[in-house]
Specification:
The chain has about 220 residues and is an alpha+beta fold. The chain has one domain. Helices cover about 30% and strands about 25% of the residues. It is built from six helices and eleven strands. Strands 3, 4, 5, 6, 9 and 10 form a six-stranded antiparallel β-sheet that branches. A three-stranded antiparallel β-sheet has the order 1-2-11, with no helix packed on it. Strands 7-8 form a two-stranded antiparallel ribbon. Strand 1 and strand 2 form a beta hairpin. The longest helix has 14 residues. The protein is extended, with a radius of gyration of 24 Å.
Amino acid sequence: MSPGESPLILSEWYELVSSDQLMQGDIFEGCPVFRPPSDLKWPIQEESEEFEFALGTQDVMVMTQSCDLLPDQKSGMWLVILCPIWKLSEASRENQILASSYGKEECRRGHMTGYHMIAGCEHGDWNREISIVSFREVWSLPLDFVRRMAAAYGPRPRLRPPYREHLAQAFARYFMRVGLPVDIPAFKSNKAESELLKKLNALDAEARQRLLSHFA
């Protein structure tokens, strides 16, 4: 696949691209990440303080909105937001909940705050198991650096719509979540009402409509 060619469709979820054009949903496997020391002191004496950043590699997902990654973007964006991706087998070893079928299903349904499950892919040009995007770690790299990396990277996977929009929605939901200290009390049905609703739901649609029309 040469730069500038149309994306190669891998599956409903993924396509393979090869250029320095970046979009939300781009996946970089083995991307360099820089981690500051956990004992970083404050205040930092700029002239005398020295500390080391640990350099590692991590599979990552581009989370910056695509419009801010365009070459002619006017937003002044110069950093690309990245979140780590873990293969499900790796994530299961680190998180015991994900090791269970219940935890995997909860994550698939979007019920595990901070984690988003994406499909696997079995294709001759790219193969990967089901994976987990973690929103609990967020890194940044300079936009120009990521563009140069993309140009040299060769063919790389990208989430296709609507799956990348679904990812972005989950990312936004994680950061906008609000817990209320005092919520409105739940409306609970009494036992008789619950039994009646069960019987009503057990009827076929035609019988249920006739009964409801009779009491309308």
